[in-house]
Write a structure and sequence with these properties.
- With 68 residues, the chain is mainly α.
- It has one domain.
- The protein is 60% helix and 0% strand.
- It is built from two helices and no strands.
- It starts with 10 loop residues before the first helix and ends in an 8-residue tail after the last helix.
């Protein structure tokens, strides 16, 4: 298996990544590549949050996780 080539993030991509982690809105002045970075990070964070909420619900309401 070959590894994909890596590159450093551009300034816009770095700003977008930081904004995504901080929950700050995307700046439309940033590049399309920055949008891809921002959207990817926010999607992963939202997925992690949904899983975390579901796990907490199972811990507090174990009967809700039972399948009949």
């Amino acid at each position: 298996m070959t590894r994909p080539k890596t590159r450093s993030l551009t300034s816009d991509e770095k700003k977008a990544a930081e904004a995504a982690f901080q929950g700050v809105p995307f700046d439309p002045a940033w590049s399309n590549a920055a949008r891809v970075v921002y959207d990817g990070i926010t999607e992963v964070l939202a997925t992690k949050e949904r899983h975390s909420l579901a796990e907490r619900q199972v811990e507090t309401e174990p009967e809700a996780a039972m399948v009949i």
